[in-house]
Amino acid sequence: PKKYSGSLDRFEAVKVTPHIGLEFRDLKLNELNDQQIEDLSILVSQNGVVFLRNQAEIDPKFQLEFGKKIGEKFPTPPGTLHIHPLTPPQELNEILVITNEGKLAAQYTDTPASDGWHSDFTFEKTPSNYAALQLERIPEEGGDTLWSSGYAAYDRLSKPLRDFLETLHAEHDGNRFHDIAKVTGVKIRTERGADNVGDDLRAVHPLIRTNPVTGWKSLFVNKGFTKRIVELSKTESDALLNFLFDHIAGGFDFQVRFKWNIGDIAIWDNRSVFHSATRDFDPSIVRRGNRVAPLGEKPYFDGASLSRAEA
């Protein structure tokens, strides 16, 4: 596990909930040195998600450079950024535009936020370790994003069930993006960073994952992409996954909800956090932002690691 040096202690920070979320009021991302960025990554991993208010001076090019720096301590090779399968040809390929407008609106549905919980790109052999999202257009009301702690989701399970889950692996499948590609006319990206190549968007990962920054265990399944526990029959797998999906969606006491202002940035640890956007506003209102996601290590489980509660 990495140790926080204290280089960000001079900035005002508020713990948002006991289990997840830390908010900085006066920190400017573009003024941090390398040591402070390293410490910020540690705080993100410890708190799940960090919110930075009033970052209007940040543009997509700076986001890319920040994404490379926050991910540079991890194998992949270091500093490699993910390219989303549905990213159209553009100047900054590693920037994913999150929007409910135009062709990409096919990604958005009328499903409630409780059905939208996911971790990004878990269908990749090497998913992202962090994500940084900044919204540039928002509705006056609604459009919040929620995050849920995979650490706490693990800790809330009984020990016999935790022990059983630690022996299992699941298939994550993102091939639904092929259907969206056909509708939108966007060609699937076959080279998406590191060993994330080809057009079959599937990978197998452990159900319980160890975070290398904190050394803590986390539940690592999500309703968006996890389709099958490979060691179980389909009936057993469906029953257990549905229980875990409900456990995540219903874990109100280890979730945090963020009300965006234009220019705010949220940075989260994609290894140990789930998130979901609320679509509670009129779809004619544009909600748009830019996200960058550095690639990390291949998901693994270390039997000697501790849960956050144990640590």
Question: Overview of this structure, please?
Answer:
By secondary structure, the protein is an alpha+beta fold. It has one domain: Clavaminate synthase-like (Double-stranded beta-helix). Helices cover 20% and strands 21% of the residues. The protein has helices spanning 34-47, 60-70, 150-155, 159-165, 176-184, 234-249; strands spanning 13-15, 22-24, 49-52, 96-99, 130-137, 145-149, 169-173, 202-206, 208-210, 217-219, 226-229, 255-258, 265-269, 273-277, 288-292. The strands form four sheets. The chain has a seven-stranded mixed beta sheet with strand order 1-2-3-13-5-15-4. It has a three-stranded antiparallel beta sheet with strand order 12-6-14. The protein has a three-stranded antiparallel beta sheet with strand order 8-7-11. The chain is globular and about 50 Å long. One of its GO terms (cellular component) is cytoplasm. Belongs to the TfdA dioxygenase family.
